[in-house]
């Protein structure tokens, strides 16, 4: 296989040890669960489809879903569960193009499957739009793009920070940090754009409900924000390698003769 093939990631498709199939399946299941549980919080069974959305409930549902999913599959696929994350990391050289394309296909298919299951499980009287993302009252597409840009930006900026290979101490808290960032974004943006943060999440809802109004906003915004955040972090804020960090200098515990004598019990207490 030539150099071009290795750069594109074609080498990852050969050999059973690559784990690419497991990773693709993990991304599929991750997005299925995200749309099932996250968008499920947008449905109000008790009050029907005309009930006002509970923003805190929706924010917590999506944040906790991402926390649980990344905790479960992070070691398999990296726990992207979002085309904006995948494209952002690919732009920074952290993911090869072929893997990125396969991830995005799996993410969109999983989101569609999750929204399909949600539709099957929900009574027609309460289904409404099944969590389809849409612009809020008087919010223009350009304003929606700006909101989604910064939703993608903050998410991928945090992802890069907690997954920095030179910061192994942050690995354990990465799923929680990412989940809380998703919660943060929803608390801000549900009334603006429905707070997608995730093109696949919007795609899954749109394809099941067949509602495509301003759908480009939910791809262009998070993806552009994700690329900007990944490039900014990698080229401006990456932690230095451990071997480049100068070890701290410590003052000797016993730095003079008087202190040595005191510690040995041979001299007077000089304090």
Care to describe what's here?
- The chain is mostly helical and 271 residues long.
- The chain is built from eleven helices and no strands.
- Helix 7 (141-162) packs antiparallel against helix 8 (174-193).
- The protein starts with a helix and ends in a 7-residue tail after the last helix.
- The model is unreliable at 248-255 and 266-271 (pLDDT under 50).
- InterPro entries: Aquaporin-like, Aquaporin_transptr, MIP, MIP_CS.
- It is a multi-pass membrane protein.
- It comes from Papilio xuthus (Asian swallowtail butterfly).
Short structural summary:
This protein has 271 residues and is mainly α. Helix content is 62%, strand content 0%. It is globular and about 60 Å long.
Q: Mean of residue pLDDT?
A: 88
Q: If you consult CATH, what is the topology?
A: Glycerol uptake facilitator protein
Provide the helix percentage. Answer: 55-70%
| Strand element count | 0
The name of the CATH superfamily reads Glycerol uptake facilitator protein
Biggest beta sheet attributes: none
SS field, number of helical segments: 11
Low-confidence stretches: 248-255, 266-271
Classified by CATH, the class is Mainly Alpha
Q: Give the topology string: H per helix, E per strand.
A: HHHHHHHHHHH
């Amino acid at each position: 296989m030539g150099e071009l093939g290795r750069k594109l990631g074609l080498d990852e498709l050969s050999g059973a040890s690559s784990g690419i199939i497991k990773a693709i399946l993990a991304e599929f299941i991750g997005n299925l669960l995200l749309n099932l549980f996250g968008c499920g919080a947008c449905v109000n069974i008790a009050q029907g489809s005309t009930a006002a959305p509970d923003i805190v409930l929706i924010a917590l549902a999506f944040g906790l879903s991402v926390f649980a999913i990344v905790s479960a599959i992070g070691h398999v696929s990296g726990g992207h569960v979002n085309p904006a994350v995948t494209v952002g990391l690919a732009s920074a050289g952290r993911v090869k193009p072929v893997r990125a394309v396969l991830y995005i296909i799996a993410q969109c298919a999983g989101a569609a499957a999750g929204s399909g299951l949600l539709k099957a499980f929900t009574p027609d009287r309460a289904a409404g739009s099944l969590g389809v993302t849409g612009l809020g009252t008087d919010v223009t597409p350009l304003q929606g793009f700006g909101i989604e840009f910064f939703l993608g930006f903050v998410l991928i900026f945090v992802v890069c920070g907690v997954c920095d290979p030179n910061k192994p101490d942050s690995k354990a808290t990465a799923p929680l940090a990412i989940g809380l960032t998703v919660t943060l974004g929803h608390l801000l943006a549900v009334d603006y754009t429905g707070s997608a943060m995730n093109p696949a999440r919007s795609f899954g809802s749109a394809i099941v409900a067949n509602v495509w109004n301003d759908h480009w906003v939910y791809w262009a915004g998070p993806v552009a924000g994700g690329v900007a955040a990944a490039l900014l972090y990698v080229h401006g804020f990456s932690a230095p390698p451990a071997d480049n960090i100068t070890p701290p200098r410590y003052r000797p515990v016993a730095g003079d003769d008087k202190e040595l004598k005191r510690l040995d019990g041979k001299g007077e207490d000089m304090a």
